[in-house]
Structure formats: structure tokens, C-alpha cells
């Protein structure tokens, strides 16, 4: 792939940094871990156990549930029963952990994964009256993740705390993303996804939702 010296490296840091809006972990009401890389869940669980929040919500995608079991939790909240009862093409779950127990439940699976998670999460934010939410994801994914949650959260006063998976756990970082074909294409595709979310996906879904609410008021 691309060979780099120290000067060239510094030219390649900004494309990653623009996507990574992460800050240091702060105390929150809840930690939410986006589906995807297994290191996201490992890090989210660590922060929860370190006392950063009293709630932890994992998003578990269609193909993730087997790797999710590798966390060796005491209780998976009935996740395995849900997996067996749900057709594979509809599998997307949230696993909600608190000091009093764990529960798993399915969420509506739409065409766009991050937006599906944000829409389902927005309902929990309102129902659980969450005021400060820590979002855990890979650094390159955080800008789009925050954008989706902000645009779908009904309460604009909810404080979002985006936190990236540390470099020692992450596969692609600002220091190495251009050194592999996978990393290079990943960052480029993330820019495309951000563009689509900003100018197409979020506006269209928001418009459909407003039209649906307006229609329901008339019947």
C-alpha cells in the first residue's frame, strides 16, 4: 500500500482526525456501544465496570452474537433465545446491563445500520430519561454516529460524550490507516457515508417520520 516517511505521515493524520470527534471518557448516565468491531464492546464493558455509568447498552448486529458471547458475561439477558426465535435477516439486538440485571431485545432492522441503532437508541434515551450518554465506537465512525444520534434524539439537551476505542485495542488508527488496503478503503468509504447521511439518509428518514406523525394525527 502507501509507503510513508515522517512528513508524509503528518499529511495523512488530518483525514482520520476529521472523522474522529472522540474525547476522553466522562461520567455519564449510560454507555452505548455501537455494533461492529469486537474491541468496541470490550472497551465499553471496561468503562462500565470502572464505574463511568450505571447503565450499559450493547448493540449486537446480525453476525455478532457469537463473538459477543466471548465477553463471558454472567448473564446475556436471554439473547440466545432471541437469536433462535428471530430470522437471520432481522437480527439486531440491544443488550441492556444494569446493577439489577441484564435484558436483551430486538430493534427494527433498517437498511442503514448506524441510523437504525440511533433511532432505537433515541427511544431508550427518552424512556430512561438519559441526560448524559457516552457513545463508544471506533474513531473513524464517531462523527457519523454522533450525527445520527443528534439528529434523531428528541431532547436536544441530552449531552453526548463520544469516546473512541483506544489505539492499543483498535485495528485502524490515525497512525496506520493508510498502511493496508482495508484501512485505506475503510476511511474513504466513511467519508462517502458521512456525505450520504448528511444530505440524503437523515433528511429523507426525518421527512418520512414527520409525514407519518402528521398522518397519525389526522386519523
Strands, helices and their partners?
Blueprint: H1 6-19, E1 30-33, H2 38-49, E2 56-60, H3 65-68, H4 79-85, E3 93-98, E4 101-106, H5 113-127, E5 132-137, H6 142-152, E6 159-164, H7 181-218
Parallel strand pairs: 1-2, 1-5, 5-6
Antiparallel strand pairs: 2-3, 3-4
Offer a quick outline of the entry:
The protein has 219 residues and is α/β, with parallel strands linked by helices. Helices cover 46% and strands 15% of the residues.
Q: Which key phrases capture this entry?
A:
219 residues; alpha/beta; 6-stranded mixed sheet; 7 helices; 6 strands; globular; disordered C terminus
- What is the arithmetic mean of pLDDT? 91
Strand content: 15-25%
Which class of secondary structure composition applies to the elements?
alpha/beta
For the largest beta-sheet, the strand count, sense and barrel status come to:
6 strands, mixed
Helix content: 40-55%
Radius of gyration (Å) = 18 Å
N-end to C-end Cα span? 59 Å
Q: What's the shape?
A: globular
Number of strands: 6
Q: Which residues sit in consecutive blocks of at least 5 with pLDDT less than 50?
A: 214-219
Q: List the secondary-structure elements in sequence, H or E.
A: HEHEHHEEHEHEH
| Strands in their spatial order, largest beta sheet | 4-3-2-1-5-6
DSSP summary: helix tally: 7
Task: Explain what this protein looks like in three dimensions.
There is one protein chain. The protein is an alpha/beta fold and 219 residues long. The chain has seven helices and six strands. The chain has a six-stranded mixed beta sheet, sandwiched between helices. A hairpin with a 2-residue loop joins β3 and β4. α5 packs across α6 and α6 packs parallel to α7. The longest helix is centred in the C-terminal third of the chain and has 38 residues. The protein is globular, with a radius of gyration of 18 Å. The termini are far apart. The C terminus is likely disordered.
